[in-house]
Amino acid sequence: MKHIVRNCLLILLQYLGEPSLVDTFREQLIRAVLTYIEDSVDMSLTHIATCVIYTLGCATTKEQKALLRETGAIGSIVALVSRKKQANEFDATIDAATGFLWNITDECPPNCKEFVDCNGMDLFLSVCGDGPSAKAAIRNLLGLLGNVAEVPSLRHHFIRDDVIVTLVKLLESEDEGIEISYNTCGILSHIGTDGPEAWKVTVPQEDVFTAMEAAICRWDIDAERSINYNSLEPLLQIIKSKKCPSAQLWAVWALANLTNVSSSKYCLLVKEEGGIPLLREIFEDMSKEKMLKELAGRTLAVCDIHSQEKGLW
Q1: Which of 81, 53, 80 is nearest to 67 (CA)?
Q2: Cβ atoms of 123 and 82 closer than 8 Å
Q3: What is residue 40's predicted lDDT score, i.e. its pLDDT?
Q4: DSSP label at 59?
């Protein structure tokens, strides 16, 4: 029987590229596959089932993301990650599971809330305690928490000494290129835009801002990234905020990096989503820090060159 189930799951993986077929039976497929994630007796079946769920969580619509939440997929995957962590098994299965959670929370506040409600913050702290062996899972969870931090009503879940202390330590990480440090800085940037009145922890906020800026100064502006923004609105909202210069520095650095390494996509997004006037305002403001102005100027120059080449502006 196990071999039959295994072959069915493998065949299903192959047919996930057929939207018409998958959409017809999406809910039934999710519920059936989750039974092999929740039953961890056979880890080979669990791994294949997790890959199926991960694939179903990629490039989904808001309605499909809602369905994954309503079928209990988020809770089941959180439980799987917890079991793998307790067994000290940081393998391809936990990477796929945390990758699913990252994808399914992207631009989906209800799914972000579901993750938090499933004790997601404690899960994150637990995984972080395993150090380098968990680096891929930590990277994915930080990406997920970046999605959570974009939701103003959920940011209070980060206001804990243990969470802030862990995030500050991760700013220094060089694992996974700059991704762990970058995602951590993004989370702290969103928290910072809520202002000092929301900072109800014992860790001094100025110390955190100093650590953020030190991390940003270490990053390579030419670094190729594994991140993909469908919209720059979260970055632009931080740039608009006047409450946290360190957060503004992170967001402008992000734009400078993205437009530098993927100009064809991100220069257009900067223009379409109103980033040019914001960057020009920073560049022309004599009171702004030198590095911030230089990054804004660099981004404007790259966007200008791209527009001239493409004849867009």
Answers
A1: 53
A2: yes
A3: 65
A4: T
Average pLDDT over residues 224-247: 90
How far is Cα 89 from Cα 84, in angstroms, rounded to an integer? 5
Decide: pTM greater than 0.90. Answer: yes
Name the residue among 102, 1, 7, 82 with its Cα closest to residue 38.
82
- CB–CB of 145/100 below 8 Å? no
Alpha-carbon torsion angle 93, 96, 97, 102, nearest 10: 160
Contacts of residue 296, defined as CB under 8 A and 6 or more positions apart, other chains included, come to 252, 256, 279, 280, 282, 283, 288
Give the pLDDT confidence of 30-42 residue by residue, as tens digits.
Answer: 888 888 888 767 7
- Nearest to 268, CA basis, from 309, 227, 220, 226: 309
Q: 58 phi and psi, to 5 degrees?
A: -90, 140
